[in-house]
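Q: Structure tokens for this one, please.
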Amino acid sequence: MRSLNDFRQAKNLLLDGYDALLDDAVLEGTGLGQDAIRGKRSDLEQERFVVAVCGQMKAGKSTLLNTLVFRRPVLPSADTVMTAKITVLQFGAEECFEVEFYSEKDWKEVRADLSTEPEHAESFAHEVMLAAQQGFPQHKYVLPQSRRERFAGFEALQTYVGTVQEGGLAAPFVKSVTVYHRHAAYQDVTVVDTPGVNDPNRVRSRITTSWLKTANAVVYVTYAGQALTDFDVRFMDEHLIHVPPSRRVIAVNKIDCAQSASSVATFLEELRQSGDPRLRSVFAAQTPTIPVSALGGLIDAMQRDDVALDAEMGEMADILGDFVEPHRHAMGDLAAQIEGRLMHDKGDGIVASHVEFIRSVFVRQRRYLEDAKEKLADRGALLAKSRVELESERDGISQLLVDVEELSKEFEDELTRAFDDRMMRLAEDLESLRIQMTAAVQTRIGEIGKPHHFAPQVAWILIDEFDRRKPAITRLATAARDDVQLVLDRAVREIQTPLARISKLRLRRLDALIQVSASWLLQPAGASLEGKMNQVRIAEIVEAHANFFQRLLSTSGGVGNVRNALEPEVGKTIHAVFDDQVNAVLVEKLRERKESARSAVFGSVQRVLDDKREYIDQLLARRDATQADIDAVEQEIVDLNERLASNTSRESACLSKLESLQA
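A: Here is the predicted structure, written as tokens:
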């Protein structure tokens, strides 16, 4: 899938698939009830993507969001460091917005933060005073507990998110705002507009960090030709370090203000060739970087939607010239890149997991019915036997169970040997990658010139070097997983004949039993592990080992001593990445699959033998079987065949629609 529209179409097909499962005739024998299916359906309906937008103050984030989400001016673009708000944009039944005010505890923390920023403190105090003079006193909004208030339409939005000077009289007391829009294209997306990068408000900063860590795509907005400040770089250290490159998109706004297209290209190339690894990583060539004119895109959208331009916007349209044309403002290209990131990070995985779940329900139900037929056939054969024959068969089942248990242990031992051998080879391959990464990191550390730049730059170097090796790790793990699956499949095939001989079950029934019980056999062997790899958050590991960063800041004796002190700590961090994270994410999943094999194969056989012994006891406790008993079993088999045919037809109709989603 490439777009949100693709995802929405796939989602509708999957919802139809869940509707087809809401039938007790389909769910019998699957271990699932209608409530479970409704729960999965609800999970799919409520799936949301998160796009976080961040960047330099005055880079044009509000205009960019007005273009993407509202297609007209809604979010005020005039804000300051202290009045900027965390603004959440969501699809809703009607246009409205909801305001969350600071609690007294939040307010005290905000004021405490300001005590270390005299310039901001003075400006903020002035805005609070102006608000009070205009009838918006602090005590009316800042209460012991945080509260929320909802407003219809967008007319009053300026009061709560703009600057005091521009009418945002309640803005100083607002913690966050949620705006509900009606743009259908973004109905599955939550968009978060974070404050500018130089935000001194710790309350907002914590919320910003939380959104950026969980977002499926992060759009960093910069200003064409505008040099990055210390605040920008600090923001990268504190926030973007948590965002994998696969989720970043760079929007270089205001290209209509640049001297030329070549000057924008030069600006980006200088960032990519920067001696600072942070800038090289954020603006890497493989990260989508889209030069845009958000204002040009907004005017274009308004004209296409027949929204009247006011005098100021009309004047800007004349000034922008052909930047109001799609090929020049490039907002469509930016939207496509964002949607591509969403599909790659989450959308494809959502669709694949739900397709596989729906498929597995049909498969399990079909195999359950096939096993039920075999069970009835066995019972029909028992009904034809004499009491003496039944007693002899019952007595032999106990020995069969002992023999099955012995075979089970042999199976487990052989499987463990094969599994451990494959895991040892995987460990050797991963260790080779770890050694390569350590050497590369040490080389790059040696290129850092100033000791006081070590702390943030080393973190970025670690992340960058791991990201470079993530595809190789994924390939190794995928190969190992596929090998483990082959080992399991081969072991199951080889064990069926001796198991059938020992348990005296027909091979056809034995195969049905194993397939019903072995859920791991239903998992596609070729599925990508990239989603698992994306769960590895290197920045968090760096933080866990960050005590050495603090020591670096107080290290004296020159660059050489700093590097010497750093080397063993970097090694520990890399070990933590590979041993704690890679091993936990990849190897343990393979181990879980292997350990389920024994119970799946042998547990089902043991249950069948126990059930058979119980049925024989029932027959021995009653009078001899009659022809009516035999006829009843045969009729049940006929009924099962009809159900199998009906469910197979339903399965085929449903899965044929879903096949296109995995093409």
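A few notes: Strands lie at 49-55, 86-91, 96-101, 148-152, 174-181, 189-193, 217-223, 248-253, 289-291. Confidence is low (pLDDT under 50) at residues 516-537, 552-558.
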